[in-house]
Amino acid sequence: MTEIFFLILFAALGWLWWDSMQAREAAVAAARAACDAESLLFLDDTVSISSLKPARNAEGRLLLQRAYDFEFSDTGDNRVKGSVVMLGHRVMLLNLQPRAMATITTLH
Fold first, then answer.
1. Which of 4, 56, 68, 76 sits a CA distance of 20 to 30 A from 106?
2. Cα–Cα distance between 35 and 43 in angstroms, integer?
3. C-alpha to C-alpha distance for 96 and 80, rounded to whole angstroms
């Protein structure tokens, strides 16, 4: 009985790892596409998970909701945080924080 329990546990952990890699690749692709569309540099070419929790989709199906953080740059000299929220393998929210406004100096 114990062997069956551990077999099921390892199978579930394997599925979670595989599903997380698929969702992460979709998040990287979404972040890269958003940065390309806004003429921004997608830094480090990766995302990092910030949260994982169960959530329901519009049809009421229980899925894993993952939030990922990433960094981008508009000039190459700065790092700005962005985020992407995935429900299953579907992008639900992608946030590119507003770029800092250029400081205007006036001469008196």
1. 76
2. 10
3. 8
Label residue 44 left, alpha or beta by phi (over 0 means left) and psi (-120 to 50 means alpha).
Answer: left
SS3 per residue for 11-76: HHHHHHHHHHHHHHHHHHHHHHHHHHHCCCEEHHHCCEEEEEEEEECCCCCEEEEEEEEEEEECCC
Amino acid identity, residue 107? L
pTM: 0.82
Residue 60 CA from chain centroid, whole number:
22
Q: Domain-by-domain residue ranges, the chain?
A: 2-96
